[in-house]
Design goal:
By secondary structure, the protein is mainly alpha-helical. It has one domain. It is built from 5 helices and no strands. The protein has helices spanning about 1-15, 30-55, 60-85, 110-120, 125-140. It starts with a helix and ends in a 6-residue tail after the last helix.
């Protein structure tokens, strides 16, 4: 069984093609649906945050980390929504080169260019959200046996 699993992994690895980390949303329908998904996700996070405050066990560390997760994902969602809306006002050809991770902003740089550059650092909110989610799940798993 191990040989079969190892052989399938090697064949899968050898047949792999390029996978890019970005996904284009072709206008106009793709962008509209994507922006609507951000609005729905933000609304769901607000509802979950509100409901989590009404639960009787809200004082435990697990619930604190879960609410922190909702907060950071909400900040990330607003930031991503702002980037997508800003992208509609700026030319994408300015920033991305095909099959490359290099990007350049040509002069003159306006406040929109600078704001776009800052908002593209979405990991500032996304990574703490994922860490808080991990801590919350860890505390929920250990809650029966000991405190976090």
């Amino acid at each position: 069984m191990r040989v079969l699993l190892g052989l399938s992994f090697v064949l899968f690895w050898l047949g792999a093609a390029s996978a890019w980390a970005t996904q284009p949303h072709f206008p106009p329908e793709g962008l509209y649906v994507h922006l609507l998904a951000h609005v729905i996700f933000g609304g769901a996070l607000l509802v979950l945050f509100y409901w989590s405050r009404k639960l009787p066990y809200e004082k435990t560390p697990a619930w604190f980390y879960l609410r922190l997760t909702f907060f950071f994902f909400l900040l990330w969602n607003f930031e991503a929504l702002a980037v997508h809306l800003l992208e509609t006002h700026l030319s994408l050809n300015t920033y991305y080169y095909s099959a490359s991770f290099e990007g350049k902003i040509p002069a003159p740089v306006s406040w929109k260019h600078f704001l776009y550059y800052l908002l593209r650092f979405d990991h500032v909110f996304c990574v703490p959200a994922m860490y808080s989610l991990w801590q919350s799940l860890r505390c929920f798993a250990r809650q029966k046996y000991a405190s976090c």
